[in-house]
Amino acid sequence: MRTDPRHRSASTSPLTRVRNLGILAHVDAGKTTVTERILYLTGATHKRGEVHDGTTVTDFDPQERDRGITIFAAAVSCDWDGHRINLIDTPGHVDFADEVERSLRVLDGAVAVFDAVAGVEPQSEAVWRQADRHAVPRIAFVNKLDRAGADLDQAVRSIRERLRTVPLVVQLPVGQEDGFTGVVDLLRMRSLIWTAGRDTYEQGPVPDDLLTEAARRRRLLEEAVAELHPEALEEFCERSALSERTLTGALRDLTRSGEGVVVLCGSAYRNCGIEPLLEAVVAYLPSPPDVPPVRGSRDGARQERPADPQAPFAGLVFKVNSTATGRLTYVRVYSGTLRKGDTVLDVGAGRSERIGRILRVQADRHAEVDRAEAGDIVAVIGPKAARSGATLSTPDAPLLLEPPTAAAPVVTVAVEARSRLDTDRLATALARLVEEDPSLTARTDPETGQTVLSGMGELHLEVAVEKIRRAHGLEVGVGRPQVAYRETVVRGVTGLVYRHVKQDGGAGQFAHVVLDVAPLDPDDDRAEGFAFSSTVTGGRVPQEFVRAVEAGCRDALAEGPLGGHPVTGLRVTLTDGATHSKDSSETAFRAAGRFGLREALRTGVMALLEPVVEVTVTVPDDAVGTVLGDLAARRGRVSGQETRSGTAVVTATVPLAELFGYANRLRSRTQGRGTFTTRPAGYAPAPASVTGGVLSP
């Protein structure tokens, strides 16, 4: 949890000049280009990398360059105006949302990039919600103002309506579309013009034809800030205006509290608007001392650690990467100082690890340093078993930090080595993949004996399999993708009695439970889709046995009666029970909970759930009918349709299983002019034609 972001550290610590931020956006909004321009302007690189040329610093993986998208979160460091900026360029494709989740867990702020033509797109909204969950302060950058159809006001409206935030626009574009040349800074009422061939802007007065509009927008900005900020409101009431100093301070407070989002604009490709963006990062986003002390647990008690180099060391592993030179473990240092040669404790595993080297990261290049202090994001070499989400801490003052949550996989494929001689090598390669990416899982199907790889989507698995082929030189066969079904309770049972009695010559086992099973309330948003409670009175079932019954019920959720799929969406209530003076134990009651719930599920009425996604399809107007017909054939339900400059945007909810191969089908039906994006929309009942119906008692 974060405390009031308006808190400003009075410390003069060098940590106040550190910014840890991520670049967030929908795929193809320009995140990587923004990152490249930041690195170029700060002197971290001496040549501007281009995505289409495959010369970017952060998209260094061969697959990223081949596909032209960001797949893996890449960390870089640079310096600007006396500040050190640790920056993570995150993926924009929905299949790699887990990379974004792990990055947001260790960031203090973020820049959200939006396309000036498309505005807020599905994945833009998804990553915004992820940042909301982590309470990460953000500023917005509306990119690609040089494109045909670019409209800052339309993009800002979409930010207000779709993200439910208050956009505080601090710039006005100079020129439109191909004639875009710069911006008007509404805080200082000046123009910033980027001349072709120059890397920096030329400052000047506001152009005469924009004076009236700039004054109007400055007034709107002052009014919006005064409505949200008490000190600004006081000055506004006294003077009917806000000074630049008051406005800047209020914008900083509103950004850090999340009550508003500062909006800037530009064209990263043309190098327009990046310097003001960097100035905004320094002015508005928090430093490590500005955010609350990190919280963790020690011996069951909650503790806090401040961002202080003198405090005991505590850091969180958020990424693991195996390279040709060794295993890199990426760590956010929250408190204390980590030095080369230190021995640290992997708190969750109870294992000691030695820090051999500490590296300042520049994507796939690294510079060795002697130490890392609170607020740093670095890579270390030495830990052999620490996984993503692990806490590294000083051995004599261990603190366990909350790890990032990993999403449950929704798509599965069977993989096998082409040669039997490569079976062991494939197992090793899969183990390394899962270690690097917690959103992947690999297991052996007990019925078929096949090796099964599960992930977040079709592209996610394609990338994983291709990585095995390239990095390990293995020929791998891949089966047809299958979605991850779930089972749920349609109609439960009341008063199901289960007695677990076992006598095998020694101490016996006895447990008697009475269970009520019902569908979970739709308004209950528990992540695991399961609720357990007990109404037993009179001590008929001791509390430790109640906990054992709950554990047994959770065991039973792993396999449902319809097809062995995980069970979700149910509430279990223990209403009564009985014990034996000698033979009752936690083991017996756990078994009773497990077998009792399994029997209850077989007795009740169950239904199969399938994963569904929200699909946004962008096609020319003349192809709308074809696309709508195809979506209907895929059991899609259209929820929205709008037209933007001769282009139609269709939104629909479609079962994930129906979207395999959709990219090729859409291209063929629109002569290559159609595109689509998806985002998870949860689970929905699968029709009888797909599942064969529900299981009835």
From TrEMBL:
Cell compartments where the protein resides: Cytoplasm
One annotated GO molecular function: translation elongation factor activity
Residues holding GTP: 25-32, 89-93, 143-146
Domain Tr-type G, chain residue ranges per copy: 16-289
Pfam families: EFG_C, EFG_III, EFG_IV, GTP_EFTU, GTP_EFTU_D2
Cellular component terms per the entry's GO annotation: cytoplasm
Biased composition (Basic and acidic residues): 296-307
Chain spans, region Disordered: 289-308, 672-697
PROSITE patterns, per the entry: G_TR_1 (PS00301), G_TR_2 (PS51722)
SMART domains: EFG_C, EFG_IV
Gene Ontology biological process terms in this record: ribosome disassembly
Keywords recorded for this protein, A-Z: Cytoplasm, Elongation factor, GTP-binding, Nucleotide-binding, Protein biosynthesis
Record-linked InterPro entries: EFG_II, EFG_III, EFG_III/V, EFG_IV, EFG_V, EFG_V-like, EFTu-like_2, G_TR_CS
Family assignment from sequence similarity: Belongs to the TRAFAC class translation factor GTPase superfamily. Classic translation factor GTPase family. EF-G/EF-2 subfamily.
Role according to the record: Catalyzes the GTP-dependent ribosomal translocation step during translation elongation. During this step, the ribosome changes from the pre-translocational (PRE) to the post-translocational (POST) state as the newly formed A-site-bound peptidyl-tRNA and P-site-bound deacylated tRNA move to the P and E sites, respectively. Catalyzes the coordinated movement of the two tRNA molecules, the mRNA and conformational changes in the ribosome.
Name of the protein this chain belongs to: Elongation factor G
Source organism per UniProt: Streptomyces pristinaespiralis (strain ATCC 25486 / DSM 40338 / CBS 914.69 / JCM 4507 / KCC S-0507 / NBRC 13074 / NRRL 2958 / 5647)
Gene assigned in the entry: fusA
